[in-house]
Design brief:
Strand order of the largest sheet: 6-5-9-3-2-12-15-14
Largest sheet: 8 strands, mixed
Shape: globular
Radius of gyration: 28 Å
Pfam families: DUF3458, DUF3458_C, Peptidase_M1, Peptidase_M1_N
Keywords: Aminopeptidase, Hydrolase, Metal-binding, Metalloprotease, Protease, Zinc
CATH superfamily of the domain at 1-199: tricorn interacting facor f3 domain
EC number: 3.4.11.2
Domain Peptidase M1 alanyl aminopeptidase C-terminal: 558-876
CATH class of the domain at 1-199: Mainly Beta
Enzyme class: hydrolase
Bound molecules: phenylalanine, zinc ion
Structural class: alpha+beta
Distance between the termini: 17 Å
Length: 877
């Protein structure tokens, strides 16, 4: 039985810090087994706090050697330690200097939070609450301080010593040791502190900002990785230029350092002047990186760089405001990528991602508002809701007030809040003040969980030539929020004539008709919009560009087919094709469940043929249009999912389309064969995507040798991996040989080896669970490396639904076993991986029971981390 149930932190309990810390001097004596950290904090009583309030310092796993207050050693009776490792000191004057000395052990820190070692080098990760694992400190984002850092270490083993800000001298420290000093002139919260030290080499470049500041750019990697940093550096320079061009925001230090590390919990971290990156989002070469990898690097480099203003200069008051920096920064990186390539394809991909991850979250046990009301472990709230839905909410505001007012709002937001820790209200208010538009209703989007359902119906009256469009919204209940209010939903739309031609639109009360797309704003539960002078019954095109993160209902199949062909908006064309296919497939799933023949809707083959015929114009778009709805997307449309039936239907359809469209697919495949040099621009990436989509259909139709031939001759990772993943689904010698060849070639490259694990974990073969269990004991598997753990455990549980949900329950058992083994090593990653078991309510009772049993087994594990406890206990409620 649990004795101490973890504490729930509530947004409504916010209280300002009792003391502020104006300056911090940190001194690190680095040693893998025992590092000494000296901290000197200049404290000042917060005018907003009570005059006699004590000083509260967070601490976690620290060994205190000494504490001095104003130069005098504090006796033990002045130090009140709490069970969580934090320290309270009473009786301080209004101004005081606290000096502490602590010891920590980086080399045994497997949580990868705080100071840890990876490959013999030192790295820190402080967001959200890792700084307290380095020194005693009010570890909360509303305490902002100026940092000076001195690092001392063995010169031979640790030649490079980095921290935030600008370098401020280096020198010999005697006895084979050396030292470096860093000064960060910008006040920052502790979560942005960073230290990186070790045997690293830099790839360097320079950037001159618009106002003439010369910035040294360095990407620090392990020796041997230097030649794989070009794309990251190029992406960084483009990001810096873009933020100046679009937002007038410049970089504000003399150096910008990026360090890549292979043991990292997340994608990357925006520490001031010293970003730390998962190697996955830095290193890439033609041979080793897929097109998805190239794009991921561009996005994440931009994201972290953009945080310098949205996150660092203007930061969050408390962690409930996390989306203030994350939603806004994701919005900014999405726009950057849209400007770098195809806006339409980028939007399609982002919406695909939102629906794959955020919609199910919003419909599951961990559903939470973009601004949560409470948490047990903040690490659990770095979610698709906070990031992706948060970005959608920023986009809603952008759509509502327009690009020009939005830019003015950003200027106002950064000017008013520079060097401060603020709230979502400060962002919305700036946008409101800059636009003169009342945005108060948009708080509903921040504070209410669940995905709104938007239903459209319409009628046409030939006598009055009036077309009436009625929009209705409803949000299903989520845990803790049974009753929902309407939220403002901007619906970008247009009307098409019966011939498919776009119509100008005039709403009742307007003087003139408007051409192109217009945006209706649904504010209440239901609203009708009357269009005048409509010559014939039109087809409405709704939610162009996915103007709001909602589920649109009520569009008939006939209209979907029509819109997929005729609409002017590429998003709606793609979306209509997808929804049409989804509707057909869900019907097939029902047939499969009843044991009836699946049949085939010829319109799907027709659509594929049409798309292939027009593919030359925009191969990347064609590749998106040709991709059938994913298994997860289909499951999310069902009250009770049936992963096995969904998989069978999707396979059947792929094979059927492959057979019926074989000549056209083959012709496209052949025509797109790479001839010139390898390129990673949008067109080249689009061509490879389309070609590999054709390959998938052809392979499904039985053209096995084609994938093998592509695998044998591929000159880049995208083509090699596309072929290998198709082979991995097959049986026989070619499969085993390809997997063995791939392993032999890439055994020395961790990032590629991750792909080798994932491909096998996601192979939908009947022996999948046994294969995954075997890979778990493979000599190259390492539970402690988050990328590797995700590549096997996460890929299987999230990327192989038909096998994970095998009725034996063995898939669930494997996941629970892995989570129980990982939790004491890295609770943060264990809590993330356990997620799929929480979706038991969406499965049939037989599966749900088995899933709950495994959740319970995890919950019964002694000393469970707070994060895993929160996920599992909420899933079982
Ligand atoms: N703040 C990081 C980002 O989104 C994510 C992160 C969170 C990294 C927590 C590490 C730990 O850019
Ligand atoms: Zn971020």
């Amino acid at each position: 039985m649990k004795t101490d149930t973890p504490v729930t932190i509530r947004r409504s309990d916010y209280a300002p810090p009792t003391f502020l810390v104006d300056t911090v001097e940190l001194d690190f004596d680095l040693d893998a087994a025992s590092t000494t950290v000296r901290a000197k904090l200049a404290l000042r009583r917060n005018p907003a706090a009570a005059a006699d309030a004590p000083l509260h310092l967070d601490g976690d796993g620290l060994t205190l050697v000494q504490a001095k207050l104003d130069g005098v050693v504090l006796p033990p009776e002045r130090l009140a330690f709490a069970g969580d490792g934090s320290l309270t000191i009473a009786g301080l004057l209004d101004v005081a200097v606290l000096e502490t000395v602590v010891r920590i052990a980086p080399e045994t820190n497997t949580s990868l939070s705080g100071l840890y070692t990876s490959g013999g080098n030192f790295y820190t990760q402080c967001e959200a609450e890792g700084f307290r694992r380095i020194t005693f400190f009010p570890d909360r984002p509303d305490v902002m301080s100026r940092y000076t850092v001195t690092i001392t270490a063995d010169r031979a083993r640790v030649p490079v010593l980095l921290s935030n800000g600008n370098p401020d001298g280096a020198g010999d420290a005697g006895e084979g040791r050396h030292r470096a000093r860093w000064v960060d002139p910008h006040p920052k919260p502790s979560y942005l502190f960073a230290l990186v030290a070790g045997d690293l080499v830099a790839v360097s470049d320079r950037f001159t900002t618009r106002s003439g500041r010369d910035v040294a750019l360095n990407i620090w990697v392990r020796r041997g990785d230097e030649d794989r940093c070009g794309h990251a550096m190029d992406s960084l320079k483009r990001s810096m230029t873009w933020d100046e061009d679009i937002y007038g925001l410049e970089y504000d230090l003399d150096v910008f350092n990026i360090a890549a590390v292979s043991d990292f919990n997340m994608g990357a971290m925006e520490n001031k002047g010293l970003n730390v990156f998962n190697t996955k989002y830095v290193l890439a070469s033609q041979e080793s990186a897929t097109d998805g990898d190239w794009q991921g690097i561009e996005t994440v480099i931009a994201h972290e760089y953009f945080h310098n203003w949205t996150g660092n200069r203007v930061t969050c008051r408390d962690w409930f405001q996390l989306s203030l920096k994350e939603g806004l920064t994701v919005f900014r990186d999405q726009e950057f990528s849209a400007d770098m390539g195809s806006r339409a394809v980028k939007r399609i991909r982002d919406v695909r991602g939102l629906r794959a991850a955020q919609f199910p979250e919003d419909a599951g046990p961990m559903a939470h508002p973009v601004r949560p009301d409470s948490y047990i472990e903040i690490d659990n709230f770095y979610t698709p809701t906070v990031y992706q839905k948060g970005a959608e909410v920023v986009r809603l505001i952008h759509t509502r007030i327009g690009a020009t007012a939005f830019r003015r709002g950003m200027d106002l937001y950064t000017a008013r809040n520079d060097n401060q820790a603020v709230t979502i209200e400060d962002f919305v208010t700036a946008m409101q003040d800059a636009s003169g538009i009342d945005l108060s209703a948009f708080y509903g989007w921040y504070d209410q969980a669940g995905t709104p359902e938007l239903t459209a119906s319409d009628s046409y009256d030939p006598a009055t030539r009036r077309f009436t469009l009625t929009l209705r919204q409803q949000t299903p209940p989520t845990p803790g929020q049974p009753d929902k209010h309407p939220v403002p939903i901007p619906v970008a739309m247009g009307l098409l004539g019966p011939d498919g031609a776009p119509q100008a639109t005039r709403l009742a009360g307007e003087n003139a008709a408007q051409p192109g797309t217009r945006t209706l704003l649904l504010e209440g539960t239901e609203q009708s919009f009357v269009f005048e002078d409509v010559p014939a019954p039109p087809v409405p095109s709704l939610l162009r560009g996915f103007s709001a993160p909602v589920r649109l209902r009520g569009v008939t199949r006939d209209r979907l087919r029509f819109l997929a062909v005729h609409d002017t908006d590429p998003f709606v064309r793609w979306e209509s094709g997808l929804q049409y296919a989804a509707s057909v497939m869900l019907e097939m799933v029902a047939a499969q469940q009843r044991g009836e023949p699946l049949g085939f809707d010829a319109a799907l083959a027709e659509a594929v043929a049409n798309t292939l015929a027009a593919a030359g114009d925009d191969p990347a778009f064609a590749a998106e249009a040709l991709s059938l709805p994913g298994e997860g997307f289909l499951a999310d449309q069902m009250e009770i999912a049936d992963p096995v039936a969904i998989h069978a239907v999707r396979q059947h359809l792929r094979a059927e389309i492959g057979r019926r469209c074989r000549p056209a697919l083959r012709a496209t495949y052949d025509a797109l064969a790479e001839t010139g040099p390898y390129r990673i621009d949008g067109t080249a990436i689009g061509r490879r995507a389309l070609r590999n989509t054709c390959l998938a259909y052809l392979t499904a139709a039985g053209d096995g040798p084609l994938a093998k031939a592509q695998f044998d001759t591929a000159t880049n990772m995208t083509d090699s991996l596309a072929a290998l993943s198709l082979l991995a689904d097959t049986d026989g010698a070619a499969r085993d040989k390809a997997l063995a060849t791939f392993h032999a070639r890439w055994r020395g490259d961790d990032l590629v080896l991750d792909k080798w694990f994932s491909i096998q974990a996601m192979a939908a073969r009947p022996d999948a669970i046994a294969a995954v269990r075997a890979l778990y004991t493979h000599p190259d598997f390492d539970l402690r490396n988050p990328n590797r753990a995700r590549s096997l455990i996460g890929a299987f549980a999230s990327g192989n639904p038909s096998q994970f949900h095998d009725l034996s329950g063995e898939g669930y058992r494997f996941l629970a076993d892995a989570v129980i083994a990982l939790d004491p090593i890295n609770g943060s990653i264990a809590a993330r991986l356990v997620g799929p078991l929480g979706q038991w309510r969406r499965q049939a009772a037989a599966r749900g029971t088995l899933m709950r049993r495994e959740l319970q087994r995890v919950l019964d594990t002694p000393n469970l981390s707070k994060g895993t406890f929160e996920k599992v206990s909420k899933a079982l409620l």
